[in-house]
Amino acid sequence: MRKRFWLVVLIPSIIFLAVVYFFINSWIESAIEYAAEEAVGAKVEIDNLSMSIFPLGIEWDKLQVTNPRDTWENLFETGIVKFSMDPGQLLRGKYIINEIEVENFILGTRRKTDGAINKERNKRAVFAGDEGTFSQLADKAFKATVETPPLFDIVKLKEGFNADSLIKALDMSSVKNIDALKTRVDEITNSWTTIKSDFEIQKQKVLEIEKQITAIDPTQLKDVQKITETIALVDKAQKTVNEISSLINDK
């Protein structure tokens, strides 16, 4: 019985795990490249991707994303990129990025080889169109953020890959300003007792902003979509608060 178990179960399992161990990196690299190309409409190249189990994460040495309007130019390229994932959430089918590091992010570099893909794939790409600059594509990507699934949901990447949300998520300084913004909103709200009735409209704006900002919980910002939505809300609130502050000072 033991010999039979060894031959029927254990040996095939060992062979399977060995195959996975040696090929998992290339499988993941190819899957990400293909999904990104389906979104961008041009070649996406990742060099030397490696996956670690403890801690759970992915790292690569270089990333090149071709400009679909000029396939001898990159929209952008990076050096080493590292990010760690939450293994507990992964078991639940969720892809939560705990930390991400990007080195040498450069726009508009020239390519040594043509980055074109076949025309059929280019036509069905999410961001294919007349836009040819990084800023134009980034603007289109940002507007599509709320309609796309979480960025690192590998299963759903083909339905909508948002390159700009990755870049926007790196600017976490906006999220750090939430507490400071809450304080400013409180100060403005408390000053309304001394302001004339013609500021009633501005008062309602401040109360609405206060309600929105107070509802923000930084501990819940666990995916790129929520982070991007929060950053947009904070940026809009910051501009409105500055305008109202100037109006109060003038009075």
Question: What does this entry look like structurally?
Answer:
This protein has 251 residues and is an alpha+beta fold. The chain has two domains: 2-170, no CATH class; 173-250. It contains nine helices and eight strands. It has helices spanning 2-40, 87-91, 119-123, 134-143, 163-170, 173-176, 178-190, 200-214, 224-250; strands spanning 44-47, 50-52, 57-60, 62-67, 70-78, 81-85, 97-102, 106-107. The strands form two sheets. It has a four-stranded antiparallel β-sheet with strand order 1-4-5-8. A hairpin with a 2-residue loop joins strand 4 (62-67) and strand 5. Helix 7 packs parallel to helix 9 and helix 8 runs antiparallel to helix 9 (224-250). The longest helix is centred in the first third of the chain and has 39 residues, at 2-40. It is extended, with a radius of gyration of 24 Å. Mean pLDDT is 72; it is low at 148-152.
Summed up:
The chain contains nine helices and eight strands. It is of the alpha+beta class and 251 residues long.
Topology:
Blueprint lengths: L1 H39 L3 E4 L2 E3 L4 E4 L1 E6 L2 E9 L2 E5 L1 H5 L5 E6 L3 E2 L11 H5 L10 H10 L19 H8 L2 H4 L1 H13 L9 H15 L9 H27 L1
Antiparallel strand pairs: 1-4, 2-3, 3-6, 4-5, 5-8, 6-7
Helix pairs in contact: 5-9, 7-8, 7-9, 8-9
- The geometry reads as extended
How are the strands of the biggest sheet laid out side by side? 1-4-5-8
Strand portion, in percent? 15-25%
Question: Distance between termini?
Answer: 91 Å
Cα-atom radius of gyration: 24 Å
Uncertain stretches = 148-152
SS field, number of helical segments = 9
Largest sheet: 4 strands, antiparallel
The total count of strands amounts to 8
